[in-house]
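Running log. JK asked me to keep both predictions on one page so they can be read side by side. First protein, sequence followed by its tokens:
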Amino acid sequence: MLATLQGLAPERVVTRDRVIADYVVALGKGCCLLGHGPVGPECVWVEHQAQGCANCPFRTGSGSGNVCRLPKATSSQGVQVNIQYLARVLRDVDAGRVAQQRFREAMAGLNAQCLKTPLTVLCLVSHPSRGVTIAGQNTELEPLLNTLGLVNWAGGLSGYLPLCRLQQLPQQPDYLLLLEPWPGQFQSRQWPVLEQVRAWQEGRILLADNSLMAAWGPALPTRLHAIREQLQGC
């Protein structure tokens, strides 16, 4: 998983992945974080395994840097494993233990506040290549909704589906969860299909960044808590 690291801890961590950047910050190494630039022997390039490394600029004229590939976490346990592994890479196991403990406590806090009466939520995801889709079951959002005590209104459907399928679902969700790449993307356009949904008409709308789906990471409890606060404010 990791090219040979020699000597002391890496001086710089280079990544273009937002979730991996969250791991680095959680370990207290945010000052070492770079989003781009040449990667020499004193640096480590960190990426998710699924991304491959064909386009990772970790080679320099004087040699090559080190490459660390983390699996995409899909559970709390996966996040803790990745924290521990990256802490070893950065030569700071103690920081890893602290980050793991903070993450466990934050997730436990969310679970303790789970809704007593489950609410249904229609999840709409804006994606650069797929456009706006309905998130059904067997998607990355399913375990996140379970953590919040929410029920996927489109749970009878599987995968990501075109927005037109909304007309085939007669019941009304309690809330809409809009995952958008930039704030206000949904409000900036007309959505005739959504105008038929009472939650849209009445403003029962929860907003989140679409990176919420990317992978579980140390910042996930904060993002889920933001959704919970919106629920309390509606």
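And the second, directly underneath as requested:
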Amino acid sequence: MISCHPPENGRSIARVALFLILTICVSATADSEPADHDMALLEKYRPIIHIAPGGTAPVDFYGDYLPLSVLRDERKDGAILIEHPKRNDLVRFDGLNGVYLDYAGPPDLKGSPVAYGRVYQELTPILIKGEEVMVPFIFLKYNFAFPVSGLPAGLPWYKQWLASIAGDPVAWRELDIHGSIIVALTTLDGKGLAPVALVLGQHNHYRTYLLGRSVPAINGSGPEISFALRSNEPYPLPSGKERVCVRTVANPSGFSFVITGGGLSIFSGYDHIYGPSTGAKRIDDYTIEQLPPSDPLYTARISLGDRRRLFGMIPTYYRDGPPGMDLNSWPGLLEYGAIMRFWFVDEGDRKSAALFDRHIKGFSDANLPPVLKYNSRRFSEEFLKLFSLPKIPRDR
């Protein structure tokens, strides 16, 4: 169980600062073995996953994706350094300027699905009668690997047209590993340890759902998840007879669009989410694997996919393969308890949308405290309507 970590969302943000934090965290835990009770929790609440009709299924990064890749050097016009690289090659070349992994296999690779699982424990403040009370939480985190990632399936015609010229909307970039599924547990009064929230990493942001409020409660099993068509982002499984279209945006500067639908952003679109009645396919035969904290799938600073360019000419972060799963958030938002509260927003909450517009200008320009303060208060209010915490003893 890990208690020191940078979180995983989106792509590389302030990578140097995060690497310094990551180095400290990994040095303290690199030799530790995952505990049996961690795996027991990960298995108990393993997500029930579905993919869209015609969608790509997750694969095994080391067993399926890596053997079909090569290591290239951008400084030498993409010359191949190593064919069929191994795990130790990613470690050996990590941090070298211009080195990146390039996947040469099919976009619809048929492999063996793996969920990369980790367990984190944290103390998270909950506002109770005007006072912040530190509450122990356990966060069960699952990441799946997809060989390619596409743009949202629901784009206006002009964005779809432009994307088709600039690249491939279906395989916009190589490797998708940052769409995370996180189950938050805490001890409830009279019930013991229980799941209370679901946090999903989607398109460089997260969404937080309180169980029994915006998504169904889960009892003795995991959350039901549907990966969006083309983009592979995780969403709560729809139960209706029609596909669901969900607003999304690739840059957090436009997150108010997700909340209210207002504003204009070149990065906005709609993810198409499918349920059992609309053709979603359930994937049951995946395994859960716990990697060491120092594993390059988590820590790599090189791109783990091709560095594709817009129109074949213009370099852009949006088409680069991702770095490791640990290198993905603002330095000021490093704990899952904070992420859970920061990204707790209600549909149509104009105050929260206004705070995002005012304070979140992009990946490198974000004033987090005002947004965190408001959304944390809202999280505490709604959390306490649903759940009762044990009485906290006070000193006399």
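Observation for JK regarding the second prediction: The mean pLDDT is 89.
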